[in-house]
Write a structure and sequence with these properties.
The complex is a heterodimer of chains A (about 525) and B (about 220). Helix content of chain A is about 30%, strand content about 25%. In chain A, the strands form 3 sheets. A 9-stranded mixed β-sheet of chain A has the order 5-4-1-3-2-8-7-9-6. A 6-stranded antiparallel barrel of chain A has the order 12-13-14-15-16-17. By secondary structure, chain B is α/β, with parallel strands linked by helices. Chain B has 2 domains: about 130 residues, 3-Layer(aba) Sandwich (Rossmann fold); about 60 residues, no CATH class. In chain B, a hairpin with a 4-residue loop joins strand 8 and strand 9. The chains are: A alpha+beta (about 525), B alpha/beta (about 220).
Amino acid sequence: MTAGGDLSERVLVVRCPGWPVMGREPGHAGDGAAPGGGAVRDTEPGAPEFGQVVSVVEGFCPRVEVLHPGACAIGARGPARYFGGEGALAAKIIEAVTGGGFACHVGIADGLFAAVLAAEQSQRSRGTRRARPGGVMRVAPGRTRAFLAPFPVSVLDSPDLTDLLPRLGIRTLGEFASLPAAEVVNRFGTPGVIAHRLARGLSRRPLAPRPPSADLSVGQEFDPPARQAEPVVFTAKALAQRMHDGLAASGLACVRVQVQVVWSSGQEITRLWRHDGLLSALAVAERVRWQLAGWQGGQDGPGDDDAARAGGITMLRLTPDQLVRDQVQQLGLWGDAVVSDRLARAAIRVQAMLGHGAVTRPVRAGGRGPADQVTLVPFGDTNDRALRQAGPGRAGRTGGPGWTGEPGRTGGPGWTGGPGSEDRPWPGRIPAPSPATVYPAPLPARITDDSGATVAVSGRGLVSAPPARMSADGAPWLAITAWTGPWPVTERWWRPRATRRRARFQLVTEDGAAWLVALQDGGWLIEARYD
Amino acid sequence: MAGLASLLPRRHDEDAVPDGGRLPVLPALRGLLPGGLKRGTVVTVGHWGLLCLAVAAGASAAGAWCAAVGLPQFGVAAAADAGLNPGRLLLIPDPGTGWPQVVASLLDGCELVLLRPPGQPSAQMRTRLVATLRRRGGVLVVAGGWDDAQARLLVVRQEWAGIGTGHGRLRARRVQVAVDGRGAAARLRTRWLWLPGADGSVGAVDQIPVSGQGMRDTG
């Protein structure tokens, strides 16, 4: 198609459907999780378990790249020759992974982008009559551009372009790929060039033509060996920062980062993680944590040997892999919402004391109740889709650009972030003013009428009697001086397990306090307090 | 050039609020805290609530980073409505038993820390924290009790508007806030405020006479 060096290598992607979506690449939609549905940001469930899948795949090719928990990739050329063809290799991998108790799908194509789509395609076509045994989708060498052509442009990982292109009448990757490259540069800039290369079946960016003169890997030895994961993860933050500084000084970014951990017994475990110049130092450290947790929880790793585990970790090394010129990650001229070093140091120190998830920043989310309208993101995670879209946070700076509202009046359109649903109308949401106290878990309460009977609400939204007295979580009874409601709301009725029916009330008690309470399943809950 | 510089968004690297000795407060609170919050001091508010957010909002709006420690119930939307910038907010809901150390570390990076102490702080702990506070030039806003505070704020009276018995909705609250303290702040002062006002913001009562009428009518 084009000059030889530009052609992508053969890539095989193994994808386990239904894995938690945390950390996945935005734009590769099509998973079971509802977008913006739950705002679930628990601490990476499943990342360690995915280590088991990765170890199985490592049996076929030692260099496995983890794209996100739930998907990993290997270079297909060498293993395919050894195992007798790409089809045979895919069948063997599926057999081995399925044998470990995980459903999986495999896609093979030129380049990672097409291979990921092929893996998703094979999953989707399973249910139809074109079912493929084992869920393999193989795109023949050189046919990648034709394979990509019918896909909608929304599969590109670029929110601006996927919004803009359809409005220009360009709906599929094929139509986009047929535009002349020079015009694409003029009109869409660097992100457009990357997307255009992907649409043509080429690699994301040309690899750096020469190897870097200096060794950009960073390492740390532990003497005495570290027996706990926490100090290693903490060191990883500092190492990642040094690695990013070194890369930035050379004007380079790395596509992947290789994390190597050596135990005092001499055993070592090496893993590649997707980086794309987007991860902060903290996010790299989090990958190290996953790697350690995955190894400790793994059944088939070298970790079977308890003595070796007790030996402790003697060395940690981070190596940037596949260096490319750093093109789009430059800081804005007048610093975008970059966290100052002083603040980052303070926050990291607290994270070292309490754990990564203990220091959070609020991001606005969509929802009706006051507790649904905010999502907390651990400090330093630029991994979140919203934060990534909010602005160019250069790799190596801690703390992503978050809530870029103007100081002062932030209630309005200045709020950014959230899973993309915060600006929807949300009929039935609680009207302003917002409560100052939002209980993370609603408090149980008792609310009775004059006769002492618990107030109920009928199916048609009628109150049994005016509420007269309230007792919050076992506290003394207070007379209710003013009340309003009920405001019935039925949420997620389409998902039986997540469905929620509430009738909300606002109350003022004799001490002057104002409350947001709700009746759900016959019990009264205090959701928030206004004053 | 100086005129041009003022037009540019603030460089976040230099996020120290310029006015050396004091952090600014919202205009509505200037009558209660003349000159703002004195750096290196502790301000207490009777209990956790909107008044804490209002005290912190002025500094945050001026570009200071704020941290909220021990406040899992922090209402971010209400904070934003009051004027606090959620983009410059760190939340540490559960600081654990080592909370004084957490607060001291945060004071290195944040100019204002909102704290609800998980336990009764000992005198030694307080002395050590206040020393850190002085060294760093931060302000600690405590929800609850704290001896030797520079200023103590308290909601004395409050009255909700807009809600009746079975109709209307909460629209605004009129509160009487009293403040006393040490030194120049020793004299007891009281002010009436809208906390919150009809749009969630904080205002002095005489500034919003019209909406007050409307609210009573609705109620």
